């Protein structure tokens, strides 16, 4: 607000308050005048025995006490006007000050919220989103002014070992120290960010050649050489550095970050501990690293497809729903498993587009099945980054409206680790979606942090036991005990339980013994395309549900059908 606006506001406030305060002053004057009239009448009555105009005039002329009384309204008027002006001005200034203070507090709060969503809480460095944003801006400005830039990805190689040995507090302290050393080693114009648990990024803007970035890498390695002190222990940290250069190695953020990842992979194998990207590296790196830049095109060109794996109610043998699982049919590499491309989409901003694609397709298929009278719930997997995207609830509302699905037909699968990362933000998004009617399931239960405190805070309907426990319950007593305990825990929390990885009838029977609610696994069906899924339903409908029991022709027929379609 500028000064002239502020003084206008203040003078308006003063006018309003003054007119209120003046009312009381006018009342004072009125009372004083009434007192004079009454006093004059009384004097005239007392002195002359009657009240007439003449007697009143005589009373006024001769009585000194009345003269003093006559002055009082003027004193009241002037004094009232004066003090009301002062009070009104003071009150106006007070309101103005408080408004300004409130305004500045709101602005501080806004700044703080912005800061939290774009920075790593531990180190206070920019987070991945802000880093990519800065890289994109730097590329745009380098483009227009013909400048060059480099990106360094620094991975702390032995971080997991340190974490496992020393625990979270000590490894957090080390990360803080690393962030300080990295900032010390780089120049003021470079942007240092924390882009993953143990990966940092440095954007070096405006350099003359990739050699400068190489020098910085050596400098960083030197800075990291001295041991880190935690709890009076000296801990040595080993880092690898991958370097890419713009415009030589790529023209956009995704390509550059992907290639920096490839260079990092080569750095891990090299004696130097750092590597500058070369196209020949692509041949020696895992498929997942080279495919990253192709994923965007795959989404746009519809090379992805969505498969559905049935979920069957264990007690009634009825079809309960299906989990939507993404598949990538690559023109040269063939079918690529989501275990390959989901983690790489998570490392870049691509996961947002991928999740959007999956949601659209899954909601559309779900609407079609419900239209056919099939009352099933479709489960969709959400990633960590989805749970930190404040646009997600609106995006889902938009897709739901355009496809005509009801929120209660959908189950959103989340993992414990995705919530543990900035839990307050994730919880806010989860609660919003839950209020909109979407159900939540905790996926891969047993493999993550398993914090019961968080489990209680989440608005969950379902818990999915990870397949690694379920697949082995026939051979490992330990796993059987864990599965049984998880089922009891979930039931005590009022959650329904799905067991994944049900591969044979023995497992199915044991789960039924344990009172597990829903089964998902190869024994019932592998993930199927929409057409295969429709055929599978027709197949299982050939037999009454009550006979859809392990070892009955139904399951065998389905299994035979399964093996036929998978060949
Ligand atoms: P998940 O969510 O735990 O999905 C279950 C995985 O177990 C699927 O692997 C499924 O094919 C496999 N599976 C099912 N039954 C059995 C069984 O009886 N035995 C064995 N050995 N495996 C079984 P898939 O489809 O390869 O997916 C792997 C992971 O990729 C998923 O694990 C999920 O975390 C992720 N994923 C898949 N699609 C999506 C997606 O659309 N979005 C996101 N964010 N993640 C996805
Ligand atoms: Ca899942
Ligand atoms: Ca799972």
Explain what the structure shows.
It is a single chain. The protein is α/β, with parallel strands linked by helices. The protein has three domains: 3-118, no CATH class; 128-277, 2-Layer Sandwich (Alpha-Beta Plaits); 303-538, TIM Barrel. The protein has helices at 3-48, 53-62, 64-118, 128-145, 159-166, 168-185, 210-225, 253-269, 287-300, 338-347, 350-371, 392-403, 416-420, 423-435, 452-457, 467-470, 477-492, 505-513, 530-541, 553-565, and strands at residues 148-156, 191-194, 199-207, 228-230, 233-235, 239-246, 274-276, 304-313, 319-330, 334-336, 377-381, 410-415, 439-445, 462-465, 496-500, 518-520. The strands form three sheets. It has an eight-stranded mixed β-barrel with strand order 8-9-11-12-13-14-15-16, surrounded by four helices. Strands 2-3-1-6-7 form a five-stranded mixed β-sheet, sandwiched between helices. The longest helix has 55 residues, at 64-118. The protein starts with a helix and ends with a helix. Bound molecules: ligand C2E and calcium ion (2 copies). The site of ligand C2E has 21 residues, from strand 9, helix 10 and strand 13.
């Amino acid at each position: 607000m500028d000064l002239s606006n502020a003084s206008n506001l203040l003078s308006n406030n003063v006018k309003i308050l003054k007119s209120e305060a003046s009312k009381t002053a006018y009342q004072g004057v009125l009372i004083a005048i009434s007192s004079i009239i009454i006093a004059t009448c009384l004097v005239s009555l007392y002195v002359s025995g009657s009240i007439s105009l003449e007697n009143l005039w005589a009373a006024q002329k001769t009585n000194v006490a009345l003269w003093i009384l006559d002055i009082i309204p003027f004193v009241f008027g002037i004094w009232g006007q004066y003090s009301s002006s002062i009070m009104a001005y003071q009150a106006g200034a007070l309101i103005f000050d408080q408004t300004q203070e409130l305004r500045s507090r709101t602005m501080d709060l806004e700044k703080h919220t912005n800061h939290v969503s774009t920075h790593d809480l531990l180190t206070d460095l920019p987070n991945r989103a802000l880093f990519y944003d800065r890289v994109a801006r730097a590329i745009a400005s380098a483009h227009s002014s013909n400048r060059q830039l480099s990106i360094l990805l620094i991975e702390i190689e032995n971080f997991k070992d340190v974490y496992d040995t020393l625990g979270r507090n000590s490894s957090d302290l080390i990360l803080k120290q690393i962030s300080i050393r990295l900032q010390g080693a780089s120049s003021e114009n470079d942007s240092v960010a924390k882009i993953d648990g143990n990966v940092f990024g440095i954007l070096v803007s405006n350099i003359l050649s990739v050699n400068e970035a190489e020098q910085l890498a050596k400098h960083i390695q030197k800075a990291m050489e001295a041991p880190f002190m935690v709890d009076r222990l000296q801990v040595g940290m080993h880092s690898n550095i991958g370097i890419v250069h713009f415009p030589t190695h790529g023209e956009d953020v995704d390509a550059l970050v992907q290639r920096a990842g490839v260079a990092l992979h080569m750095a891990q194998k090299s004696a130097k501990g750092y590597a500058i990207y070369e196209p020949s590296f692509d041949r020696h790196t895992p498929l997942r690293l080279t495919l990253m830049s192709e994923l965007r095109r795959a989404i746009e060109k519809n090379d992805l497809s969505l498969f559905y794996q049935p979920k069957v109610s264990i007690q009634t043998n009825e079809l309960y729903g299906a989990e939507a699982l993404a598949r990538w049919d690559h023109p040269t590499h063939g079918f690529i498993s989501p275990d390959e491309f989901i983690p790489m989409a998570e490392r870049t901003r691509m996961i947002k587009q991928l999740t959007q694609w999956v949601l659209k397709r899954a909601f559309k298929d779900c609407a079609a099945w419900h239209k056919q009278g099939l009352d099933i719930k479709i489960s969709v997997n959400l990633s960590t980054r989805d749970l930190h995207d404040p646009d997600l609830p609106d995006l889902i509302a938009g897709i739901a409206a355009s496809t005509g699905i009801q929120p209660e037909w959908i189950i959103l699968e989340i993992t414990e680790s995705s919530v543990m990362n900035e839990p307050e933000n994730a919880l806010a998004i989860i609660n919003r979606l839950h209020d909109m009617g979407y159900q939540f399931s905790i996926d891969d239960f047993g493999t993550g942090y398993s914090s019961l405190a968080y489990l209680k805070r989440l608005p969950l309907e379902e818990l999915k036991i990870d397949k690694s426990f379920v697949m082995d319950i026939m051979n490992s007593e330990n796993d059987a005990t864990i599965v049984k305990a998880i089922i009891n825990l979930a039931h005590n929390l009022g959650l329904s339980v799905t067991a994944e990885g049900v591969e044979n009838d023995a497992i199915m029977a044991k789960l039924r013994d344990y009172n597990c609610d829903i089964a998902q696994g190869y024994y019932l069906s592998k993930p199927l395309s929409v057409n295969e899924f429709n055929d599978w339903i027709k197949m299982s409908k050939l037999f009454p549900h009550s006979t859809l029991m392990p070892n009955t022709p139904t399951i065998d027929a389905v299994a035979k059908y399964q093996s036929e379609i998978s060949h």
